[in-house]
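Hello again, I could really use a second opinion on something today. I've been staring at a protein lately and its backbone has me curious. Can you walk me through what the tokens say about the fold? Take your time with it, there's no hurry, and the full record follows here:
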Amino acid sequence: MLLFIECEAASVEGCLRELEEKAKILEKTPGAIERAKIELSFGAFMDIKIALKIDPTRNTEKYIIAEYASGKNVVEELQKRMQMRIKDSEIVDFTFGTYTMPVTRRKYAVGVAVINRPREDASFENLTIEERRAILRKALELFGWNVKVLNISEIARLFSVSRDSIYNDIEQILKEKD
């Protein structure tokens, strides 16, 4: 799945606030970020564009972290702020840029990172229906859509659901496939 996020504002603070709001969609999107591309542009308006490729077969928390610093030593300050927020995470992509205001000569540094953080509950039991179906879809693809190779009882036990739930999932997956 592809996901695009774009933010534009007259101020750095406004653009990052808008990005934070738009990035909340990742909480509702199952899977993990497989790849990302980030673009920053500065000028009369600050613009951030992020393209994400989501892998629905992995189970992680997904975040876009954006920070800024202004004043002196902006890059070093930005680095400290970003480091504190990225701990225990897989960094998929990151970028930073600097901008000096033409009139005031105030310098800004902006950093954006796209990260996956492993979920605390890494078991199959707490997956959403969409996440469970994504895993089943991948298994079916790998086995050439042959349902007979799947052990439905074992799969139901792994996901802590009934066999009927797994049969229903497979039925929906096969309908969507066609």
User: Anything to note?
Assistant: The chain is about 35% helix and 35% strand.
